[in-house]
Amino acid sequence: MPAKYHIHVRRVPPRFTPLAKNAIIDWSEGCLRCARCVKEQCPVDAYRKRGFDRTQFVDTIDEMCRDCYRCVQGCPRELIYKVVNPQYRQLGDEYWTPEILSATWYQAETGKIPVSGAGYGGPFSGPGFDSLWTDMSEIVRPTRDGIHGREYISTSVDLGRKPMFLLFDEQGDMAWTTPPLLELPLPILLAEPKLGPNPRGMQEIITLAAQNLGTLAILGRDQLVPVPAQALGQIMPSYSAGALELEDPLLSQVRAIEMLDHPALLKQVEVLKKRYPQLLVSIKVPGDEKVVDRVAELTAAGAEIIHIYATEKARGLGGFQDLHLKDLIRRCHLRLVEEQLRDTVTLLFSGGIALAEHVAKAIICGADGIIADLPLLLALECRLCRQCTKGGNCPVEIDLLTTKRGAQRLVNLIGAWNNQLLEIMGAMGMREVRRLRGEVGRAMFLEDLEKEIFAPLFANRETELQKRDPN
Amino acid sequence: MEVVVFACQQAVPDPEALKSLWGLADVRFRVLPEPCSSKVEAFQLLRTLATPVDLVWVIGCEESLCRLAEGSQRAGGRMAYTKKYLEEIGLEPARVGRTVVTPGDQAALRAAVAEIQDRLKSLGASPLRQAPQSAARRAAP
């Protein structure tokens, strides 16, 4: 049995104090000077260890506090309060919420799964990925404990074209050369985010992280930094429409490339594959109203990998701007199922994948793998202030981050995501992420539940109303 | 030069609007939203001033309008303590200041910004900027 795939996480402390969700208001004036002050009984000794962050002008006690409320409840004069920190509330936007940002920072720092405490205080359902639940009916089986279980849960995925059948000659040998296939140990690829104060530094960080994780880093060919020879196998250069030149030396050094879709693409891929038959080609397609037909067309024409991209808020493009990524994935997947082509091609999706649960849910909806981009920037302590897009200075100095430190934070984040994927699969009774793809039988969609449960109720209600008042 | 304003979220519900009132391009104007002006403690004011920042200001609610009942009053007490402390150690107490406004009163915020600008003009750059120790500290990563 092959060794278990393991991601080596290591704590990388933040360079800037993360903004805490809650702030302590400490009114020391009027203190009774109790013999044993509640501040001395703090389980994390926050009152003694508190300091001052010179760059952000904040009291570090808020970041150290674990919200146990012991001091708030214990002070006899009620001089300590906890309130929501307005600086925290201002982080991110309506999709990339402060909770997503802080959870990403925690995972990038520790490599651990964020645990929010006892119970869940959030809403029952929400838009997008929050309207999809996974069936965790196997959660009690200890052998399928995702991370530490005795049974191995595989997170490996294959990139490339899979033949629909095999053909053997009279000697029993393969009658044709099978298309190239690339096995990745996890269904997550890394890509450059569109934001960031130092794109070149980001490329180096992502390349090193991809090398450590054994996955691929998708990097723009136009601005590509010199890549060390040992890392060439881990990068997937991305070419803009019509920018590919057959003489590019990188084509013989890498295992896969990405090309932006354009009308003459299939012809170009054909010429490319003749010259570099072992090179995998991923076709990047916008997730607009034409995407479903285009995916079917490309698959029928022999595409190996198709990368469909949505907006950073998990919405489609153009005429599909109101469509959530999960529905976009479902449509593309189901169309290929109808055409009996689904198993031949690898579908990758990007845009709006913000949390570990989104990885599992995207795969359940029909993706073979996902491409993480913006979370990688968040892992480097980004506050999503978008100052870099306006020519301003980065408040957390991402441009000064060393490659090694940044790469380890990315490894930590993906390590935490991978562990959560294992936990979800373990609880669902799955042992292969390949089998999770399109496995909607083990998931529940809010819209389906509403149709099955609420629609009949409302239908009956309408009948009753009609009986009472036929006019 | 640099000015740091600790702004109570009730008194200054829109920190960006306050920033837009500033208008002096050569002075960095930072507005840090706080849950209440009483969140800012004396040590925080002093250490902010030692960064060095040229002027530290607190904008809070009028005492009778404070949502935490005593918060604004306590912030006033802390400000007085900080000024006294600065005086004792031989620094200018005017480097810290406080304004109370009625929440949502734009005219009062404009007046506060004008007051901050006047104070900065009269004081000039912080003498701590010339101190070699602070210069070295600022340069350190």
List the main descriptive attributes of the protein structure presented here.
heterodimer; A: alpha/beta; Alpha-Beta Plaits; eight-stranded parallel β-barrel; two-stranded antiparallel sheet; 16 strands; B: alpha/beta; four-stranded parallel beta sheet; 5 helices; globular
Structure report:
- The complex is a heterodimer of chains A (471) and B (141).
- Chain A has helices at residues 46-49, 61-64, 70-74, 86-89, 98-110, 199-213, 265-275, 291-300, 325-338, 356-365, 374-379, 403-428, 433-436, 446-468, and strands spanning 22-26, 52-53, 58-59, 80-84, 132-134, 157-160, 181-184, 188-191, 217-220, 235-239, 256-260, 280-286, 305-309, 346-350, 369-372, 443-445.
- Chain A is built from 14 helices and 16 strands.
- In chain A, helix 10 crosses helix 12 (403-428).
- In chain A, the strands form 5 sheets. Chain A has an 8-stranded parallel beta barrel with strand order 8-9-10-11-12-13-14-15, surrounded by 5 helices. Chain A has a two-stranded antiparallel ribbon with strand order 1-4. Chain A has a two-stranded antiparallel ribbon with strand order 2-3.
- Chain A has 2 domains: 22-90, Alpha-Beta Plaits (2-Layer Sandwich); 143-447, TIM Barrel (Alpha-Beta Barrel).
- The model of chain A has no long low-confidence stretch (mean pLDDT 91).
- In chain A, helix 8 links the parallel strand 12 (280-286) and strand 13 (305-309).
- By secondary structure, chain B is α/β, with parallel strands linked by helices.
- Chain B has a single domain (2-139), classed as Rossmann fold (3-Layer(aba) Sandwich), CATH 3.40.50.
- Chain B has 5 helices and 4 strands, in the order βαβαβαβαα.
- A 4-stranded parallel sheet of chain B has the order 2-1-3-4, with helices on both faces.
- In chain B, helix 2 packs across helix 3 (71-88).
- Chains A and B meet through strand 1, strand 3 and strand 4 of A and strand 2, helix 2 and helix 3 of B.
